[in-house]
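Sample A.
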Amino acid sequence: MSDDKPRRGYSLGDEPDFDLPEEGSEETSALHRSRLEDHSWFRASAKPTPVPQRALQARDEWADVPFGEEPKPRPTAKPRPTPPAVTLGGTPIAEPGASLHPDEVKRRKLRTSLLLTAASTVLPGSGLLGAPQRWLKVVGAATALGSLGLGLYFLNWALRDTASFASIAVDPDFLNRASVSLIVLGLVWVALIATTHIATRPGGLQHGRRLLGAAIVAALAFGVSAPSALGARYSHDQIMLVERVFGPGGDTGDGGVQSTSRPTLATEPQVDPWKDVPRVNVLLLGADGNEARADEVEKYSVRTDTIMVASIDTATGDTLLVQIPRNVQYTPFPEDSEMAEAFPRGFRGEPEAEWLVNSIWAKVELDYPNLLQGNTYRGAEALKEGVEGITGLEIDYFMMLDIDGLQQLINAMGGVVVNINEPLPKGTATNCRDEDRCLMPGPDQRLNGYDAMWYARSRKTTSDYSRMARQSCLIDAVIKQANPATMLTSYEGIAQAASHMVTTDIPQRDLKAFVQLAFRVKDAKVQRLVYSPGKNGYSYADPDFEAMRQSVEDALNPPSPTPTAVAPTSVAPTSAAPSTPAPAEEETTASPSPSGTPEELQEGAQTVADACAWNGEAE
C-alpha cells in the first residue's frame, strides 16, 4: 500500500500507517487538512451528525452541576387524557393533534354550506351570517331582520283586522305595487340563496359535489321564485278583473259607471264605511244570456229571469233574500220617479206577456231612449225602481250574473254541495225516466257547474216558484262554501269566470267596503222571503202590492206579539161553531218545509238553512 494513500475502509479511529508530525503543530493541522480534503470518501462521511434533542437537554442539565453532584430531576407533565371515541354523523372525532383527511374536511364544509343555503331559503339572508366575510354577515343580518319584520307586520295585520287586510285585494294601486315588489323580491331572494352557497362552500370540490350543490341551489331557488312569480301573476289578474268588472278607478273611483241611486259611503281611514248606511239593498239578477243566446241578447237586450233583492244589515251582516217571480204583472213604481211618470198605471201594455217585470230592462233599453238618461245602465235603473215599487225597498246597487259565468265559478270552486229533495230533469229532458239526464234526490250532493245550473233552472217537473226557492239555496251554498284555499288554488279560473259573469254599478271606490261587508255576511243569518201564489200578498192575476211590501217590512222588523184575549168561560152557542173543519192550509204553512215545492213555501220569512235542508222524504 502506498504511503500517501490510506487503505479502503480507513476510518478516523484506526492507527495510521504513516508517520505524523508532532501533535498540535501547524504542520500537523495542515497535513490533516490537505490529506483529508483530497479524498472523496471523507466528504461523504464528514457530514455533521445530528445530535438528539434529548442529548442536548442532558448536556444543558449537567452544564451548571458541580462535579460529583446529580442534576435535579425535571418535573414531568401529566399525560393528557385520551378523549373517548365519539361519532358525529358516522365519522369518528379525531384525537387532539390528529388531522382529518382533506376530503373529509371538504365534505363537512359542503354540508355546512348547504345548511346555510337552506337557512337563506327559509329566511332571506340568514345563511350569510355563516359567511367568512364580515360585510356579507352585515348584509345577511340586515336582510333577515328586515324580512322578519315585514312578515310579522303583515301577519299581525291579517290576524288583527282580516276584513281590512282582505280589502287590499280590490285596490289596484296596491296590487300594482305588489306585482312589481313580488318580482323584485323573487330575484333578490334567489340572489341571496346563490350568494350564500358561493360564499360558504369549500374550494377544490370534486366535479360531482359541485353539481350536487348547484342542483340543490337551483331547487331551492325555484321553491321561492315560483310562488313570487305566481303572486305577481295573480296580482295582475286581479287588477284586470277589477278594472274589467268595475271599470278603471280614475279620479272619482266610479269606473265610469253613472248611477243616480247609489249611496255615498264613508271614505275616512279607520272608519266603518257603512256607519251612515244601516241597511244596503242589492238587486241580484240572473240573465239568460249565455253564448247560445248571444245574438238574441244583442238584438233584444237582456232578459232577467232571476230577480231577487239581498237586503243586508250592515252592522251584523244578517241578510234577507226577497225573491220576485219573473212574471209579475203591472209592476208599480215609486211616486215622483221618472218611471212612474212614464207608466202611471204600472208597467203594462199589449200583449201582456211582453210587459212582465223581467221585460223592464229590455223595454227601456230598446224602446224608451229618453228615459233615465245620464245613467250607464238605464235598464237596470228602471228595474231598480220597479223592484222598489214591489218590495218597498230602496235599491242601492245591482249585480247581474251570467249563466255561463256561474258555471265556471262553481267549477273553479270545486263544485258546490246542496240537498236535492225532488227529481230534477236536466237539459232537454222532460222527466226523470233516464237517471243520467236527471238530478236524483239525496242529501249533501256535490254538483259541478253544469249540474248546479240545472239545479237552479230546472222546472219541467216543478214550477217557477220551486225554481226560485232552489236559487236561494244555491246562492247560500256558494256564499257559505267559498273556501279561501280553494279560491286561491283556482284563482285564475275564478277570475276569468267572474270577469265574464258580472255586470254591476258598484263603483271601484266602494269595493273595500263590500269586502268588509262580505266577511260579516258569511257568518251571519240568511233568511228568504218568496213571493208565490197565495203567499206574502202575491197573486199572478191580481198582485196585492201593498201586502207584498208589508210582508217585507214584517220580515225585516217582526211585529211584537200581541197578547191573546182570554176566552170567555161561558160556552159559545153551537150554531156559532163551524160545521166543517178549518182548512188544512194553515197547518201546512205554519212549519217551514225544506222541500222547496210551491205548495210548501211558507208565509213570511224563513231561514235558508232550514228551507234548503234535506227532508228525508223523497226517494
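Sample B, a different protein:
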Amino acid sequence: MDDRHGERLDPKLDRHGERLEQGLAELGGRPPSPELLLRADAAIAAGMAQGRLRRRSRRRWQRLGSAALTLALVLAVGLASIRISPAFASAVRQLPGMAAIVDAIREEYSLNRTVQDALDEGYLQPLHLTQDHEGVKVTLEGLVADDYRMMFVYTVAGLGENEHADVGKVRALDRNGQSVIQGAGFSFDGREEAVKRQTMELMLQPGSPLPDWLDLQVEVAGAPYRFQFPVDRELFADKSRTLPLEETISIENQQLRFTSMRISPLSVAIEAEYDPANTMKLYGPVDMKLTDDSGTEWGGVGYSAGSLEEHKVRFEFQSPYFRQPKSLYLSGKTFRALPKDKGLIVLDAEKGELLAAPDDRLKLISSSVDAKGMKLGFELRVDGPDSPSRSYSVLGSDFTDADGRSFGLHLQGGTETSDPDGRQKLSYTYGPGDYKQPLTFEISNYPNYIEGEYRIRLPLEELPPEQ
C-alpha cells in the first residue's frame, strides 16, 4: 500500500481498536451509556494522536486524510457487526464527528429510501478529507457505494460573497491511473450559508470493478482539488445479484420486452428491449413504479437509452436490498412516444425558420449563427399526463447539415424556464462549424403519449445467492 495514504496499524493502535470493539459489543441493543461514549472518545483520540506524531511532516491535506483514515481503521473492527445491527449503527453515529457525517448524508438524500436504509445498516465509509485552496476548503465527508456507483457528500467553506460552489471537471482514477467512471451528477447548495453542503454521484464504467483505492480530482469554484484514499471494498463490493427475465408488455401495439433485473445495495436496474418493428419511438415511461410485496414504492433513479445499444434501455430504481422482500412489482400506464416519421426537427438557424416538427406545440422563438457558434431558443407546450413542472430537453446532441454531414458540437442546453400552464423555454448552444443550412436534429424526448396498463411480478426468491 502507498505509505502516503495508509499503513498497517502498530500494536498500540490495534489495542485502541480492540477497546472500541469491546465497547461497541457491550451495547447489546441498548443505547450507549455516557461512560461507554467517553471510552470511545479516548480510543479515537489516542489513535488520532498516534497519527499526528507519525505524520507531522506531511502536507496538511495528507495529514488530515491520515487522521480520518486512522478513525476508519479503528472503526473497521466493528463495521461487520454494524452492517447487520441498527444498535451498532446508532452507536457509531454517536462517536465524535460521526453524527454530523451521517446526518449530512441523510439530509442530502432525504428522498432516497435506499440511502436511508443503507445508513441504518452502517453501510457508510466516513472520509472527512479536507483540502484548502486559497482559503476555500473542500471536505469529502463520507462515501456510500456499490458495484455501479459512488455517492459522496462534501462541504465547501470559505467562498466569497459572490462566489458559487460550481463543479467543473471530475476525474476518478484507480491505482493504475485508469479512469473508472463514465459519468457524474451533482447537487448544488444555493443557500446563503457559510458552509455549502453538496452531493456528487459517480457512475462506474460498465465492467469496471469498484476500485480499492481512488484518486479523485475535482474542480470546485474554478480551483483544482485532489483526494486520494482507500475504498472499503469489503463493505461495498460484490453485493449485487442478477435475475433473467422474459416478460413482454404491449402499449398501443408497441412492444417492450424485459430481459433481466439486477439488484444491488443502491439500485435496481431492469434491462429491456424495444421491438425494432415498433411503428413508434418510445422515449421513456411517465408513471412506471417499482413496489415491493409490502406495497412500499421505490422511487425512480434514472432511465438510460442513448448510451446503450439501439433498441435497448435500462430502468433504474431505488433498491429494497436491505429489506429483502420476496417479490417486486413493476407497473404503470403511460409512455412518451412519437411515430417514427415524426421524430426529427428541421430548421434553418440563419433564417430563424422551423421547417419540420412533430406538431405545433414546439416553436422556434430565437436563433443566431456567428463566429462563436449557434444558439437556438424554443417554446414547448407540455400537456397531458406529464406534470407541467417536468423539464424537457428536446434536441439531441448531434445534428446533420444539408450536405448530410454530422456534427457533434453541442455545448449546453435544456429547459430555462417553465410556467404553471406548461409552457417551457428551451435554449441550446453549439460550437462553430462549417455546417450548411438547413439542419436536422433527432428528437431526444417529447410530450406525446401512448397508454396501456401493465403490471409484472419480479420474484426475488429466484435470485441466485451472493457469492
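Observation for Sample B: The CA atoms of residues 17 and 73 lie 8 Å apart.
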